[in-house]
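note to self: dont lose this again. the chain is below, predicted strucutre after it. 533 aa total, dont forget to put it in the shared folder this time
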Amino acid sequence: MLMCRVDSEDVATTIGKMQADNTEAWDEATRSASGCNSGLAEARSAVCDFPYISGMTVTASTTKADPAAAKKYDRSIVEGPLLPAVWRLAWPTMLQNIIGGLQGVIDHAMVGHFVGYTGNAAIGVSLQIFLVVVVFISSLFTGMSILVARFAGSGDTEKVNRTVYQAFLTAVSLSVFVLAPLGYLFAPALLNVVNAAPDVQREALPYLRIMFGFSFGMLIFFMLGGALRSAGDARTPLRVGVFVTALNITLNVILIRGLGPIPALGTTGAALGTVIATGTAAFYALYSLWRGSWVVSFPRGGPWGPDWDVIRALFRFGLPAGVQGIAMNIGGVLLLGFIGSLALSAQAQAAYAVAYTELFSLITWTSVGLMGAVAAVTGQNIGAGKPERAEQAAHVAARFAFGGALLIGLMFVLIPRALLGAFGMRDPVVVELGVQLLRYLSVSGVFIAVALTYTGALQGSGDTRSPLYISIVSQVLLPIGICFLVQRFGTLQPAHIWSAIVVGHVTRCVLSAARFRQGRWRSINVNIEQRAR
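---
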């Protein structure tokens, strides 16, 4: 199964489908997978009163960019109207997220139909493990995106291409020498860590080993999307993503159920479909990058070895995002534990699966698209020496996000039963809990949408540590602390958990906006040394 973005909403979205097949399987999978929903896709935010991040700077270069080379980038991002510039980058990412989410739904339905609920649970626990590891390693692409946006804004093609090539080298090295061997060896132990049942482990082990062993394609796919969007081209990743999704679904139809001489491979077939599709896209991407047909490419004439100045910058700016993703994933798992402790735990988990991991993704899909767009626009405008325009872009995107989340929230309030019914929710207790949760999320969605846009602006400026701090405060300490105190001194009810979610999102929004308005991001120097000629 293909994850078209580095975020756990995809994981939680796909896992949520299991509830319709078997309640017991849903309990197994949600304990180990649905906690991702608040984690890796939303795992970007900002903080207000933490100390200024002085260690994030690198030595500035005094070399000026070639004006002719700068023409290859979309200059309307740094010169034209802001709203169209943000929208041009946002809508392809939104559409790609939606397509990727629908693919996950189709794949899980196929596995559930031809393998059974153990197959769904196996994919759920496997993705929980795989994406935590992969997204942490892929955090270097956050650093790459920051550097690429800044250099594209200044029109420095040499540094853009140099950064992309070094990100490629790092991704290949980590995939071949870290993920593949260690993932294969430790896959059984990792499945024991998430307490997967024996029959689930039998299905999950080959799936997990295949995903780890051939993670190269997915990492390159993630790298490609981040590099192109940061350079101002969001349509090429969309086209590649549509191709990968179509190929992945076609392969899964053949490999999961079998066709002609090809036997039915079940969950193993789902893994093979993913790695073949993403691997195909990766080789196409490498050909295009080498050929120089895209807005970013590999540098001409080498050097082809590692450039430690660039690699250090990739991890300096990217690692906080990886740590943040893990922190938010832990928070989601702990929150799921409180849901499991309720008197109506199975019903509450089912309501949470559909209302939060499925329907709430309507807001997060669009918000993550805006987040990536405003990060690119902010970074490029700072690179072009226009910090005021970068600030205006964040406010424009925030208003955009507010309006979109408000419209979706109105649907949650006006037609909640129809929305839940679309996912086969018939049990009256589950429906009532789902309706209740959607009312809370109609408020929460507005705040998280705005928070994500300011997060994107902070990341585009190079401030990636603030999002780490704010995620710990707003997505872990606050909601988990509220649930713990209520459970310790009273009786924990579903409404208490829903309220904790809202409090976390409101806090995240307030701190994100406040941190951005402080303006300290203006002083963060994002650069690498000019290569000696």
